[in-house]
């Protein structure tokens, strides 16, 4: 499996629909893979003594441990069946096409990193996940 996110950083306005694109190519034919989108919040401001930020002071997906941030499943797609994580039930969230995450109207808590993971038991080679960053801006 080879997974790519064509737009690694998306900026959206509050209450506007958001589409995070994720593409995958299978190395071997087989049943449809399982697609999972996971949300990871930005790193909190480090406490005294913690150094999570990168050399430029910016946040990258690996600069703080997952235990220091909110991590939750957004949605999973197996075949044509999409299952939403608990936090997203009742919202117009779905996985469209192969692996595109449609978040409906953006909410304040949506800013963060979204990890697109494609799992296939027939194709274990390659890079099976990619990360998209979403920044939700309020109205000015």
TrEMBL record:
<dbReference type="InterPro" id="IPR003599">
    <property type="entry name" value="Ig_sub"/>
</dbReference>
<dbReference type="InterPro" id="IPR051874">
    <property type="entry name" value="Ig-like_domain-LISCH7"/>
</dbReference>
<dbReference type="InterPro" id="IPR007110">
    <property type="entry name" value="Ig-like_dom"/>
</dbReference>
<feature type="domain" description="Ig-like">
    <location>
        <begin position="1"/>
        <end position="132"/>
    </location>
</feature>
<dbReference type="GO" id="GO:0060856">
    <property type="term" value="P:establishment of blood-brain barrier"/>
</dbReference>
<dbReference type="GO" id="GO:1904274">
    <property type="term" value="P:tricellular tight junction assembly"/>
</dbReference>
<dbReference type="InterPro" id="IPR013783">
    <property type="entry name" value="Ig-like_fold"/>
</dbReference>
<protein>
    <submittedName>
        <fullName>LSR protein</fullName>
    </submittedName>
</protein>
<dbReference type="GO" id="GO:0061689">
    <property type="term" value="C:tricellular tight junction"/>
</dbReference>
<dbReference type="InterPro" id="IPR036179">
    <property type="entry name" value="Ig-like_dom_sf"/>
</dbReference>
<dbReference type="GO" id="GO:0005886">
    <property type="term" value="C:plasma membrane"/>
</dbReference>
